[in-house]
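Re: folding output
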Amino acid sequence: MAELQQVKKWKSFGGEQLVLAHDSASTGTRMEFSIYLPPQAAKRPWPVLFYLSGLTCNWENATTKAGFQRAAAEHGIVIVAPDTSPRGDEVPDDPAYDMGKGAGFYLNATQAPWSKHFRMYDYVVKELPELVASAFPVDRGRYGITGHSMGGHGALTIALKNPDRYKSVSAFSPIVAPSLVPWGQKALAGYLGADRSAWAEYDSCALMVSRGWKGDILIDQGDGDEFLATQLKPELFAEACRKRNVPLTLRMQQGYDHSYYFISTFMAEHVRWHADRL
């Protein structure tokens, strides 16, 4: 197990907000993640909510802008926010913002030059939870996951593929059908190649139709989001849930866009929603 190094630490709402670094076996790089520890005495292990960020982001965006600390302290829930991709001089990149560093899409790449380091699925699903559980008093049986945009895509696909690990899943403005939209088509083709059957393993709509989900799902989406019609298409996921009789609460929030002003408005409700299910 990799050794965790504390990078930063702050007091927040009676708990502690940390940033930790470690050498990752999954990505072969140095990785950082943030973790909020609530103030409650650990009479029993804490549940954990993993938050996956979107394109161009790292752990800092949600940690400083989403405002989850107050609700996490109130409900006694740990929140972990990883980076969105491997980093470092040895990691390949793309000039565009939607490929390469900051755009890992939470998958395991199979195509050169990405396959060596871009293994964010293994990192989020396997390595990171074990690191957290080895270092902090958390309950391995009470994991939830959420995320925004590319991270919403990650949260949904990861939960649908690992229903025994994750007990709850929600999302903000998720890319639900990456196989059908420009962001996803570029990333899936680049990281996975031309075989669309491989793409289906990282497509929320395809996974919902093929696998279903054991519980309910919450999605918040701003109806003023500039990416709504071209990149996000939540109606496709709603139809997939309908086919599998999976309860979906899709809240179209009037006037809200794709920003952290939107996320911070509803973040506390998502934390509470997960806490009720964990």
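--- second protein (sequence, then structure) ---
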Amino acid sequence: MKVRSITLFANPGYPPNRLLLDQLGIFARHAKSAFSQAGIIVETIRLATPPFPQWLPQRNIVQLVQELSIEASAVGMDYLSLGPALPEFPESFALIPDVLANTQNVFMTGLVTTANHELDLGAAKYCAENITRLAAIEPNGFGNLYFSALANVKPFCPFFPTAFGDFDQPAFALAIEGASLAVQAFASAKTLAEARGNLIQSVEQEAAKLVELGTKFASMYKYTFKGLDFTLAPHPDANASIACALEALGLPAFGEAGSVVASAFITDTLDRAIYPRTGFNGLMLPVLEDSTLAARAREGRLDLHSLLLCSAVCGTGLDVVPLPGNSTADEIFPIILDMAALALRLDKQLTARLMPIPGKKAGDVTEFAFDYFANGGIIPLRSQPLNGFFAEQGKISIKSKYPLV
């Protein structure tokens, strides 16, 4: 297990509050050192701001973000998330491709739902258009690593690109790369009950150490500790594959029938563990970040609909999914709508980080040279443009099926 990120949430303001940035940098360096001394690997330190349309001027935004990114990097932030474009600021969506094309280590997103449990069709279309624009920024389609469509997502998720904060005092949370815990817990189990118990015990033991350190730093710096996102994020290493862990339960191959019950089992198990939570705290299925998922994609066992079906019982939605390079915005738009409808109806936080790969067709294999990716098969889109009412602008109210209590 590793801490993928100590994510700080703060509003740097415009012009940037350099004193605040310096203080955040001091916190970050101190925290990373203390975690390391406790035997806990921290991979990155990240800064997430409130949604950028609410505080960052849109005029000359590329230059402003470049300057902010340099200042954040200077104080020790490995990555910067500017939060989502918002439906109430429709012009903010169109700014994203230019910003991401002219920066490094900057993440941005687009929120396609409203606080009133509505799906905003215009926002979803803008996101689909951004995905196709970002696919062309680099020859391998890598630009979409830095962008995601969000649905029903709340502040203080520490995973990127989803992360964004609010305008309160600085806060922080921990994003956990914990798939290896599930691999170990399930490999040694002789029954499902034992597998469940092993994982709960491992998560709670590791969480206790992290919470002790987090609480200490919250008190020391007067920052709010939001908690842990123990989503079992994988890594391309075979011993950190969440799909490998799921298959150890008895699933012949992830993507086949039985994948939903395996996904539900592991998320239900996580729900039973006791620790302070923020973000997703579920099952993450990033196709290109997991060696087994990437292999199943090469074998043709995965498609968008099966991944969406698993999203109904797991965590993050559709993540780093490689698609044919000729995918159009009109074809991607329905996928975003399906993801958002699930999020609203089931009252879940879901995202879609889709990656059309230029020059590739369904069944081809990606060719990334990136330490955090395992090359996988291009997944067929199997989507057609919508027409009629769904092709119009406007909002669709989709209330949660769970009544308020």
